[in-house]
Amino acid sequence: MFYRIRRRAQEPSERQRQHYEAHVRLVGQVPPEVQQVRAAHQSAPEPTSVVDDVLPPELRVPSHDQLDGRVMPWTQPIVLDGDMVACAECGAYRDWVIISTQGQIWVRCRQGHMQPETRLDTAWYNRHAGPADATHATFEDCLRHLGH
Question: What pTM does this model have?
Fold first, then answer.
């Protein structure tokens, strides 16, 4: 008796047969709306407009390789390895301009004395420098902009 139930369960039911027959009839058929949309796209391809996603020249920021150097003000004292950096000529220890150029860091005091600072590197400069607010044609223009 149990074997008969299993045999009946293995055969497809009437509903499964109906579903399969409907599936066979519908294979390859496409709704008329889909055919209309396909025909519209194939018959008259419209030219797509090209969108320029590049910023205009006045909003572009030059990359590091396009600059001769970068400069930032540093008003507080610079302490490296427990020593305070001081100007070798006038002894100033605050209100610096820090210059990053050609892989070197230079510090410039308010009096205009410049000295290389070998304990700082460009990685330190990049960590502490904010975004550039202006670009200048000459170093003197940059110093005037920073108030030095």
Answer: 0.58
